[in-house]
Amino acid sequence: MSNNPLRLLILGAHPDDAEYHAGGLAAIYRRAGHVVKLVSVTNGQSGHYAVSGPELTAIRRAEAARSAAVIGALAEVWDFPDGRLEPTLELRERIIREIRGFQPDLVLTHRTCDYHPDHRAVGLAVQDASYLVTVPPICSDVPVLRRDPVVACMNDLFTRPCALAPDVVIDVTCELATIVAMCACHESQFFDWLPFNQ
Q1: Terminal CA-to-CA distance of the chain, rounded, Å?
Q2: 48, 58, 170, 186: which is closest to 108 by C-alpha?
């Protein structure tokens, strides 16, 4: 366990994105005694072929909570609309407030050239927010940070419009069983939606 725990904030577009793209690193951080928070920016209301709206949102919130509990992470699902997310000023300011409030050492998010429009919107909003977390007049209701956290992009397998060229690669095979356990909590996605959508 760490005497000075680091703080990892993962901002994904949907309730399973943090686990799928960065669950291994989240598990490694938690095992080392660090603080991890998984945030889904959207409420996940559109990610199913038969269930949607408030019913699916409730399911996805419960799945996110169970998944985070596997490693003892914090979890939050925001209420931005799934499938209709844009990198608005409202989203940017919510992210600024989250980063300032949580005070992470490392923020992980989607690439701005991801295939999914919600992923791109989150990546762009985090990119835009990351500088402004140290600017006092912006979101002045929340204390300004004195230092910028490191902001990095989560892994993905997409080659268009451009393939990921990582600067840092971390072997997470030691946490493969944990990653599977976390993802398995998202039953509506990994056992219902993804097989249907293939």
Answers
A1: 41
A2: 170
Q: In what order do the strands lie in the sheet with 74-80?
A: 74-80, 35-42, 7-12, 106-109, 150-153
pTM, two decimals, is 0.95
User: With contact defined as beta carbons under 8 Å apart, do 123 and 114 qualify?
Assistant: yes
The share of the chain scoring above pLDDT 90, in percent, equals 85
Residue 6 burial (CB count, 10 A): 14
For the segment 105-136, what is each residue's pLDDT rounded down to a tens digit?
999 999 999 989 999 999 999 999 999 999 99
Which DSSP string corresponds to 176-198? HHHHHHHHHT-HIIIIIIHHHH-
Number of domains in the chain: 1
* 1 is a domain residue: no
Tell me whether residue 2 is in a domain: no
Classify residue 136: in a domain, yes or no. Answer: yes
DSSP codes, 137-171: TTTTTSPPPSSPPEEEEPP----SS-----S----
Q: List the domain range (segments joined by +) for residue 27.
A: 7-197
Write out the two tokens for 154.
């989560």
- 53 in a domain, yes or no? yes
Q: Token match 């699916």: residue?
A: 56
Query: Hey, CA dihedral for 126, 131, 137, 140, is it positive or negative?
Result: positive
- The domain that contains 78 carries what CATH number? 3.40.50.10320
